[in-house]
Amino acid sequence: MSASEVRTCLTDGLGDDKVVFTDTCVERGRALAQPWCARQRKIRQCKRGKMTGMLSITFWRGMFEFSGDATAMRCWILACALCIAVGGAPSQVAAQSQTPPSATALPAGSGLPVPRFVSLKSDRVNLRNGPGTEYPTGWVYRRAGLPLEVVKEFEAWRQVRDAEGATGWVLQSLLSSRRTGLVLPWERKAEAPAPIAPVRSGDSDSSSVVANVEAGVIADLHTCDGRWCRVTVDRYSGYIEQKKLWGVYEGETIK
């Protein structure tokens, strides 16, 4: 049976695998994580509403002094306390979000090989700009089982890369060692028909076609021998050429 004679064609039907994170506010031209925004708003309210006196701050050789009435002093102390609670002054927080730890400074992680492929456990996972919840979220993955490549580890965090090349940090607890593969993700084009890949009954081009799958479909990987992978898509099982999958390395074997 040829591929054109097979009526079963599987598609993901989900659109984008990830969306831009929008639950942020903008402070001084920077996109900041929501908890920090909330603290910033409290400080602004104090400055605009309750501060009745003048508050001057003078820095000199790393020391500072201030003058003003008691209300102004209380607002200044509150501002300092909030900065300490979030790990430093606003400039320090911005610097942290823009400068992840270098590879040479990373503590030991899982001890597993890096790079390696994993998959998402949940259909809502935040991709952050750094290894910590204080870093802003750049993308939100919304597709459980999506394969990702781990390229770096930092304590309980994993820096990952997706099939489109986007990178960021995800908590290890949100990742699974279950191997999956995206079918021909590099062939997906906007406003163009999705290419088709056949799932065959055996590991050869002459084997009959069990089903056709569109580019972007996620397949569960069972075994791979470097040329073919035995997969399951929906309720169909069979073989797909390994080179048509993103989520397994060229020549990699999976047993």
Number of domains: 3
What helical percentage do the residues reach? Answer: 10-25%
Order of helices and strands: EEEEHEEHHEEEEEEEEEEEEEEE
Instruction: Detail the poorly predicted runs.
Output: 1-5, 24-68, 86-106
Largest sheet: 6 strands, antiparallel
- Approximately how much beta-strand content do the residues carry? 35-45%
* Overall pLDDT level: 75
Short description:
With 255 residues, this protein is an alpha+beta fold. The longest helix has 17 residues, at 34-50.
What does this structure look like?
The chain is an alpha+beta fold and 255 residues long. The chain folds into 3 domains: 3-14 and 182-254, SH3 Domains (SH3 type barrels, Roll), CATH 2.30.30.40; 33-98, no CATH class; 102-177, SH3 type barrels (Roll), CATH 2.30.30.40. The chain contains 3 helices and 21 strands. A hairpin with a 2-residue loop joins strand 5 (56-60) and strand 6. Helix 1 (34-50) runs antiparallel to helix 2 (70-85). The longest helix is centred in the first third of the chain and has 17 residues, at 34-50. Residues 1-5, 24-68 and 86-106 have low confidence and may be disordered.
